[in-house]
# Entry
Amino acid sequence: MTAKTIGIIGGGQLGRMLAMAAARLNFQTVILEPQADCPAAQMASDQIIAAYDDPAALAELAKRCDVVTYEFENVPVIAAEELAKDVPVYPPPKALEMAQDRLTEKRFINDCGISTARFHAVDSQADLEVALADFGGQGVLKTRRLGYDGKGQRVYRSSADSAEGGYAALGSVPLILESFVSFEREISIIAARGLDGAIACYDPAENIHRDGILHTSTLPASISTETATVAREAAEKLLAALGYVGVIGIEFFALPDGSLIANEMAPRVHNSGHWTEAACVVSQFEQHIRAVTGLPLGNPVRHSDCVMQNLIGDDILSVPDWLRQDNVLVHLYGKTESRPGRKMGHITQLHR
Ligand code: AMP
# Structure
């Protein structure tokens, strides 16, 4: 195999784990990230220290790399499109465009024949009041762009919750009000599509969030095989519709009757897929590297049941205890400073 160089936009832990997987297959990696000595650059061949939309830096990335990918979905679409004129960019910029705005994303998902929560665009306080009235006073108000880990959200649990000031409280930016989904559990599926159009789906994970941040992913999820098939089919539809290349993470709400409602998609490797590095022969990170470099996809089969747990903030102090346990894979992200809510690493405990 000829060694190729992969550009990765974004320098966090996802870029770090992609760089590690790339190195194992003899690929070089160049990280584009403004922060020096970022988690990804510690494991990569080189780093370009510049903003994600710096034209000179993007031109240098294109020149030095055979393919460019990214580890977060807020890469400016224009930058990705410009870059794609000079070098293949995978996943395709269209996936970024669909995932960056919750309104566009929901419409796209619905157009693919997949259910989401009902929703209204909210561009003013008056819009919010009309939308809430339509949903009987219940709903989840979210910023359309740049929300993550539950940030930029406000929950209305009943008509007793006052709508007053809701639009301004989220910054008077474009918002979306989603109907409140009384889900039984949250699941996600990690899937990949190769350059040749082949698709591989990992088993759905069951996810528990704490304070809006993923806490654990458990395999298998407590869902029926029929529900798992619905998740897989939804992933296949979205990947095909996007002409996708790479790994995608799709989150769903599972309802008591076993039906699924798609919540959001992330056009990248995903936190709820970290378990794959311990419980599958080919992890989501290697799968993504294989996909974007045109290698055959790996078998996504799971050899063990497992629980992945994020180490957030001071959870990092529990590492010595985890290291003493059998069947636990510890993965740390090279971040020197721990802060509340900051993802410092994760562990995956295998249950055979
Ligand atoms: P998100 O940023 O869209 O992933 O939302 C963060 C979390 O808020 C989700 O994992 C759910 O636990 C909850 N949530 C989001 N949207 C809804 C909804 N429409 N109905 C009920 N809960 C929601």
